[in-house]
């Protein structure tokens, strides 16, 4: 029987902490480790201004190194907790827990199978990460439910009121044998949602997640949707993102009204040895009292921050330098996972 008191909170609801895993020489960051650490330090400094941070590290040597880095950046050590666990990579939006809230008391860690984005990368340790965090006592008395179905946290958006937004391109890659109706039923049942809204269009070159929704369109308070637009008619993304914008305009809230849409500006192409990198402004992170926004060293950075701030009124807007992250095909939201208030 479905527990009607469970729901997937919206990201803008109160949080206890943000969870990250620190890059090290055994991850895919090895080639540019020092560069990407500058982003992680800036992110940690920004998060701990507003709330606690849980940092997963591979061993005690890495923990001591990170402590030194954060100390140098003036981060309050009382707001940082370390957990030592093995991991393949640092994209905790996808390997971390999707936490459901039960009324005003209790939580359920929904632990979907993580396959390295459809088998593209090794993921055995990352798939065991949630169980490892549970065993380490990070989540207190929260229940732990393992679900043997591939889903990444970056592949879904929740408005906290029963609506889930996702992309067909991603989930059909993970589950080619299942219909949209079958997948909608699984998502509704496992996430205790009322409905699933699907986008058929939208992608970014350089994104190996198969079009995660958190690079494309995000729910915001007050029936708003913030989305990545493209206003350059000669860019190869233009037609696809125009079609996605039309899909978003056609969506309706549960009471039949259109959503309030906030298109984000388009950064100029960023290339790495000829490879286009996925620089999405939609990949921002909400924390208590603030919204942390990716900055790519592009002239559109400030306008993107302004629009995101407008869509999330009452929050401070903090830009975080994310150009090093997109070298590995993700950005700010992809490396983080928020934990609801009261959970730890």
Automatic annotation (TrEMBL):
InterPro entries (alphabetical): Peptidyl-Arg-deiminase_porph (IPR007466)
Domain of life of the source: Bacteria
Keywords: Hydrolase
Protein name: Agmatine deiminase
Listed GO MF terms: agmatine deiminase activity; protein-arginine deiminase activity
Pfam family membership, one: PAD_porph
Naturally occurring in which organism (per UniProt): Rhodanobacter lindaniclasticus
GO biological process: putrescine biosynthetic process
């Amino acid at each position: 029987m479905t527990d009607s008191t469970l729901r997937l909170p919206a990201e803008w609801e109160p949080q206890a902490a943000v969870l990250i895993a620190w890059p090290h020489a055994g991850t895919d960051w090895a080639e540019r480790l020092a560069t990407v650490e500058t982003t992680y330090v800036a992110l940690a400094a920004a998060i701990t201004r507003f709330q606690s941070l849980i940092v997963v590290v591979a061993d005690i040597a890495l923990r001591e190194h990170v402590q030194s880095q954060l100390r140098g950046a003036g981060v309050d050590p009382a707001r940082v907790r370390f957990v030592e666990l093995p991991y393949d990579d640092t994209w905790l939006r996808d390997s971390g827990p999707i936490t459901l809230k039960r009324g005003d008391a209790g939580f359920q860690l929904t632990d979907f199978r993580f396959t390295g984005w459809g088998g593209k990368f090794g993921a055995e340790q990352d798939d065991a990460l949630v169980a490892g965090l549970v065993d380490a006592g990070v989540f207190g008395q929260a229940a732990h439910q393992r679900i043997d179905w591939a889903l990444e946290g970056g592949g879904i958006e929740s408005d906290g009121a029963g609506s889930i937004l996702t992309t067909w391109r991603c989930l059909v890659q993970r589950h080619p044998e299942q219909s949209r109706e079958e997948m909608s039923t699984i998502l509704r049942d496992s996430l205790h949602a009322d409905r699933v809204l699907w986008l058929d269009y939208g992608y970014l070159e350089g994104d190996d997640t198969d079009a995660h929704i958190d690079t494309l369109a995000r729910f915001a308070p007050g029936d708003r949707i913030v989305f990545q637009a493209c206003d350059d008619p000669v860019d190869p993304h233009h037609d696809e993102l125009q079609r996605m914008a039309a899909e978003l305009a056609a969506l309706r809230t549960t009471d039949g009204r259109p959503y309030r849409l906030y298109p984000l500006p388009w950064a100029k192409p960023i290339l790495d040895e000829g490879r286009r990198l996925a620089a999405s402004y939609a990949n921002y992170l909400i924390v208590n009292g603030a919204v942390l926004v990716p900055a790519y060293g592009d002239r559109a950075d400030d306008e993107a921050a302004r629009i995101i701030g407008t869509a999330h009124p009452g929050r401070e807007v903090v830009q975080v330098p994310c150009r090093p992250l997109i070298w590995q095909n993700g950005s700010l939201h992809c490396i983080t996972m928020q934990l609801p208030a009261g959970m730890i």
